Amino acid sequence: MFLREKTRTKDGKTHRYWSVVENRRISGGRVIQRQVLYLGELNDNQRAGWVRTIEAVAGEKPTARQVALFPDDREALPIPDCETVQVRLDKIELRCPRQWGASWLGLYLWDMLELDIFWRSRLPSSRKGTSWLNMLKALVCYRLIDPGSEFRFHREWYVRSAMGDLLGEDDSLAQKDKLYRCLDLLLEHRDELFGFLKGQWGKLFGAKYDVLLYDLTSTYFESEPPAADAVSKKRFGYSRDKRSDCVQVVVALVLTPEGFPVAYEVYPGNTRDTATLEEFLDRIEKRYGKFRRTWLMDRGIPTEEVLEKMRERGIDYLVGTPKGHLTRVEKPLLEQTWMQARESVRVKILQQESEFYVYVESQDRVAKERSMRWRRLRRLWAGLRELRNRKVLTRDDLLMHIGALKKEAGRDFRLVNISIPKPQEPVNENTFRFSLDRERLRQAYRREGRYLLRSNMQATAPETVWENYLLLTRIEQAFKDLKGSLSIRPIWHQLERRIEAHIFVSFLAFCLHTTLRNLARGRAAGLTSEAILEKLSSIQMIDVHLPTTDGRHIVMSRYTQPEKDVVLLLAQLGLTLPEQPPPKIYASG
Hints:
Blueprint lengths: L1 E9 L2 E13 L5 E10 L3 H14 L35 E7 L1 H12 L2 H5 L12 H14 L4 H11 L2 H5 L8 H8 L6 H16 L5 E10 L27 E8 L5 E8 L8 H12 L5 E4 L6 H9 L3 E5 L2 H12 L4 E2 L4 E7 L4 E7 H26 L6 H15 L6 E4 L13 E4 L1 H10 L2 E6 L6 H8 L2 H12 L12 H26 L7 H8 L3 E8 L5 E7 L4 H10 L10 E3 L3
Parallel strand pairs: 5-8, 8-9
Antiparallel strand pairs: 1-2, 2-3, 4-16, 5-6, 6-7, 9-15, 10-11, 11-12, 12-15, 13-14, 16-17, 17-18
Helix pairs in contact: 2-4, 4-17, 12-13
């Protein structure tokens, strides 16, 4: 290891930045460098201290002392016909523990989807022998198991995992420049991959495409916003991550009802949800053919114009309806009778010319929404009473505190009538008053646990419509997986093509995640994909170094035996661990 210096001139002043770098020898006798630790800007004393530390760590190895393997007082053992090697038992070492089990499972899922068949012809090795296919496998498994930046992959994750052993690669696979170049090769094959996955989902799990779920989310960047006149998808917009201070992109995703990803698209961060649907309808129809297909969407995505076009093209839909739309149909709905769909769910049907409305009331949702509303109202009421009881409070301070209470209470703030003192008036019980708006509260009570669905599906039972709409929770869970366990956010890339390549790699990792979830659904129900990966991560790989008396080293890379609960899990999933790798003999240590 050694210190590497980088200089940067800013505002006429030269800054020196230091990193601890390690040389590693790879195939062909070449040497690559891996940044072990970034030190930042050091002064001369700090630099001298790091030099002494590195010299102490990388000092001369002590001379090994030869020890006889067999005592002198024993009779000589018979000499076998083959070549013999004596092992120095007192010098056996265990080196380089690294995570093996989850990496093996990630590659198993990759092979289960037969992604090598798709990528082998599209990602040939470079002229210098770099396997872009193996690099993509490693990046996707990294995103599935322990997601982070490409620089973290290069700096620490690859060497702490057994991915190199499983792929038959050395440390050159983790060079950061190659990782970024690999990302540049992926996007042109994205649409072809969607078609390939369609066949794989059908072959492995019998997936059907007559019902599709559609929704959007956003993901933000930890970077400077682009210039106003720059052509970039990084834009400020409505942030579902509550990070309105960051630029973002919008990601639209299509799933089957079982949760299998069909396609996705990346839009600028300021794209309105209503502006994306029509384009996706054309794309899916072109890729999967023109037959009657049902689209499930949340409220706010389709406009009246798009719904009209869907009816004209014979496309079925089931969408949520904004609560403001309920006012327009509330009177005719009151004339309809309730029908029991389930034990705690009842519905009303309002037939229109070309579509119908389903008004759903769920008792469980009534109890949940009522509890949430009263909890927010109690906090709001307590906050208002505390403000009124303060002895010294100016009108400006009162308005600021009320604004904070309004943000916390959300829509329930409108259920309270508040009288605010006029300018120059003191704040007291006469000028600052508040009371419940009982008429609005009664209206909110009538709509608790109720929501309005809109559809043009023919000959469909009301309970089926309601159950189909609940499938939208699958796409909500998909976004939770992408943003949670797969950590698609934040994005650190600056170049447009690498931003989209980052999302593409996350999509591939989500495909492996979905495969594992559906593999476990029928065999280990109750265990999530994250729990299974965590269990298998306990299987480590260790290098057993056996020095011999003739100066050579026998190195056996061995994965540890799984614990009993992991053995049970593997048996339940129908997975069998591979044979231990063969030993290697090196001329020197």
